[in-house]
Amino acid sequence: MTSSTLSWQELVPDEKRLLPLFSRALSTSTTGLESLQSRLLDAIDQLNKNPLCSLLLIKIEEHPSNVKALAQIVEQQLPQRLVDRWVYHSPAVHQFQLQKVVADHLESAVYYADWIESDQLFGYLSEQQGSWTPELGLLHQANGGTLILSTHCLLAQPLLWLRLKKFISEQRFSWLSPDPRKPLPIRLPDIPLAVDLILVGSRESLAEFSEIEPELHANAVYTEVEQTAEIISDQNIIDWASWVAVQADMLELPRPDAGFLLRLMREATRYTNELQRLPISSLWLHKQLGAAYAQGHRLTAQSLSQALAKQTWRESYLPEALQRDLAAPHSLLETKGSRVGQINGLSVLDLPGHPRPWGEPARISCLVHYGDGEINDVERKAELSGNIHAKGMMIIEAWLMAELELEQQLPFSASMVFEQSYAEVDGDSASLAELAVLISALSFKPIQQAFAVTGSVDQFGNVQPVGGLNEKIEGFYHLCQQQGLTGKQGVILPTRNCSHLSLSDEVIEAVKHQQFHLWPVSTVDQALQLLMSCPWTSENEEVSLLSIIQQRIDEAQQPTKPAAGFFSPLRWLKRD
C-alpha cells in the first residue's frame, strides 16, 4: 500500500479556470452580496417589511470599518423614501413650537455610530447669553429611518439604553434633564418618533444583552454577518470577485486586475485554511487592498505579492531566530538518514502578541523495555501535556492492542517524549507520529528522518485532519533548507487536509522542482509503509511490522529466557 506525492499544480488555484471568471466579475456591476451575505440581506428585508418588528440584532465583530461596511449594505438594501422632519420653531423667547418639514426628495435615512454618548444621541440644550436652543441629536436625524448602534456601547451606558428603549417603544421623544434634580430651563414639545433600530455586537455582547432584555432579544430579528463564504460554483467565485472590486471602488482605490484577484485568492484560502471557503470580512480585505496599493499605487498580482512578502519579513524576526536555533549544532533534529525510535513531529507556536503562528519541528523518541504493558507519556507524567494530548496517547494504545489481538497483558512497556521541549504540549495532531515511533521501537525498524509527520488517528487506524497544516509544513521545509535539501525530504499529512493547503511561494517552488515532497495518507498503514519501507500487515508470508512485533512478544513470553536476559541484542533486537 503506497501513497503518491502531491504535484505542485494541486497546491495552487486553477489559473486557466479562474482568470476568465475574474475578468467577468470585473465587468459586472453586481456587489456579490446576494450569495455572500444572503442571511443578512433577508434580515434587513424582514426589518423593512414587517410593521410589528423594529429591532434587528446582528452578530458582527465590533470594529469601526465593519460597522461602516454594514451601514453601507443596509443603505443599499433599504428602499429610499420620503422622510418628513420635525424641527422647533420659536415665535418668542423661550417659547418653542413643533413644526413638520415635509420631505421633497427620497433618501435612505440610515445612520450609524460605533460609539456614542448621550448628548450625541439625544441632543442637548445650548445656552448663549441667557437664550436656550435645542440641538438635535442622531436619534432625531434617524427619525423615520434606521439607526445602527453598538450593543457594547449601550451595555456600557445603562441609562442611555433605558431612555432609548423608552422613546422607541412609546414612539415619542421627550426632552429630559441630564440632572434629575433640576428641571429643564425651557419647555419643549415631544417629537413623534418612528425609528427602526439595528444593534450590532459580538456574540459575547449579544449574550449579555439577551440576559438583560430577554423579551426584546426573543422577539427581535436575529442574523449574523458571515466572515467566510463557501465557494463551490463559478457564480460563487464571480460574486466574491465582484465584492472585492466593489470594496476597492468604495475605498477610492484603483480597480484590481484579474491577476490581483488570483493572488488574493491564494492568500484568502490561507486565511480560512480551506480551499473552498473564502473570507468576506471587510476588515481583512481592506488590509490586503491597502498594503497592495502602497506598493506602486496599483492593485496587481505583483503589488500584492510584494506587500505580502514585506509583511512576512517584518513579522519574521522571532520565527527566524527560533529556526536558527533548530538548525544549530546543539539541536538533535535530523533530516537525513534513518533512526530506530525517533521521528520528526510537527507543532505550531502561537505566542501572545505575535501576529501570526509558525511551525516548529519536534523530535519525538521512544524506548521499549520489558514491563507491564504501560505506555508512559513522559510529557503527561511531567505535567507538560494537556488532556487532548493524553487522549491521543490512549487512542494509539487502544489501536495497537486491537491490532495485536493479545489474550493477555503486553510483555513490554514504552517511554515516549518530545525531546528538547520544555513547554506544555497539547493537541492530538502528533498521535500519528507517536504511533509510528512506538512501532519503530517495537519492531526495531528505522524511520527515515527525511520525513516529518502530522495527523491524528482514531481507534480504527484512520488518519484525521489537523490544524495549522501550512505553518507546520513550512516550518519543516525551512529546517530542511538550513540543513540542506536532498530531494527526498517532505511531510506526511492527512489526505483530508489536502483541501486546507495554501503554501508559500518558496515551498511550492521546491515541490515543483522535486526538492520537497508532500505525501497524503488516509490510514496508519500507508504512513508506516512510507516511513519504514515495510508494510504493517501482509496477506502473503512476507515480513510485516505486525509479524515482527508479534514474534518479539512471543519470544518475550517464553518461560525459559537466554542467559543474557531480556535485553540481549540477539533476542530482543535481532532482525530475523
| Major sheet details | 7 strands, mixed
Percent of residues in β-strands: 15-25%
Helical content, roughly?
Answer: 40-55%
By secondary-structure content and strand pairing, the structural class works out as: alpha/beta
Question: How do the strands and helices of this protein lay out in sequence?
Answer:
Elements: H1 15-27, H2 33-36, H3 38-49, E1 55-59, H4 64-77, E2 81-82, E3 85-92, E4 95-101, E5 106-107, E6 110-113, H5 118-122, E7 124-128, E8 131-135, H6 138-141, E9 146-150, H7 151-156, H8 158-170, E10 172-173, E11 191-192, E12 196-201, H9 203-212, H10 214-219, E13 221-224, E14 228-230, H11 234-250, H12 258-272, E15 277-279, H13 282-293, H14 301-314, H15 317-327, E16 338-339, E17 342-349, E18 358-370, E19 375-377, H16 378-381, H17 387-404, E20 412-418, H18 431-443, E21 447-448, E22 451-453, E23 456-457, E24 463-464, H19 469-483, E25 490-494, H20 505-512, E26 517-521, H21 524-532, H22 545-556
Helix pairs in contact: 1-11, 1-12, 12-14, 13-14, 15-19, 17-18, 18-22
